[in-house]
Design a protein that fits this description.
It is a single chain. A hairpin with a 3-residue loop joins strand 2 and strand 3. This protein is α+β, with helices and mostly antiparallel strands. Helix 1 runs antiparallel to helix 2, helix 1 runs antiparallel to helix 4 and helix 1 packs antiparallel against helix 5. The protein has a five-stranded antiparallel beta sheet. The chain contains five helices and five strands; from the N terminus they run H-E-E-E-E-H-H-E-H-H. The protein has a single domain, classed as Butyryl-CoA Dehydrogenase, subunit A, domain 3, CATH 1.20.140.
Length: 212
């Protein structure tokens, strides 16, 4: 019984990791700092910065005092100026959020059954296998989104924003934003929770068939 209690606590830790991963994944989806563009066009007296997100772009004009002025423009999947790479990342992030949420709900039911002792009726069954599979897929989706964005920055991909956005087509310099770091951390936590969930079976088997 002590081993079962330790196993249950371990799975609760996995649930905590999965919940944090889903939260970070949701945050990264809404952040505009996936790509950071710097440019110094002649129409501006000072260098300006643009944060390119998956659902919006924010533009900073630094020549206005006493503080910088920020404009944000929202866009949707159906806007025709959105390039293919952003469409792919949008799908991957939406898929990972949905799978992460379903996996979290499945983990809640599995932990509840574990504490109620229902899983003891079949000791070879891992009640967390569904959560583990969903989190692995979610981790893969997030990682692919990060890599896709990374290669877009490396290859200096451009986005033809509407003239009303007042954002030049070609930045002088671009780099990866903080949203990539948040998404990468979410992918690692998704994977870590999956490893914890998949390790449950061996713990139950050791409890049922202890070494002599």
């Amino acid at each position: 019984m002590l081993l079962l209690s330790r196993s249950a606590n371990c799975q609760v830790g996995g649930f905590a990791l999965a919940s944090i991963a889903w939260f970070l994944c949701s945050i990264s989806t809404g952040l505009p700092q996936w790509r950071v563009w710097y440019f110094n066009e002649t129409v501006f007296s000072e260098p300006t910065t643009a944060f390119i997100g998956m659902w919006r772009v924010c533009f900073y004009q630094e020549n206005i005092k006493p503080s910088n002025t920020r404009w944000c423009h929202e866009y949707t999947y159906y806007d025709n100026f959105i390039p293919l790479d952003i469409h792919i990342i949008q799908h991957l992030l939406l898929g990972s959020n949905i799978l992460g949420l379903i996996g979290t709900v499945a983990t809640i039911f599995a932990v509840g059954n574990l504490y109620r002792g229902k899983v003891l009726k079949n000791t070879t069954y891992n009640p967390f296998v569904i959560s583990a599979i969903l989190n692995i897929i979610a981790s893969t989706f997030v990682l692919l989104a990060v890599l896709c964005n990374y290669f877009s920055v490396i290859h200096k991909a451009v986005i033809t924003f509407p003239p009303s956005f007042r954002i030049p087509l070609y930045p002088s310099y671009q780099r990866i934003g903080i949203a990539n770091v948040v998404a990468s951390l979410a992918a690692l936590l998704f994977l870590g929770s999956s490893i914890i969930f998949l390790s449950y079976t061996s713990l139950v088997e050791n409890q049922v068939c202890p070494k002599v």
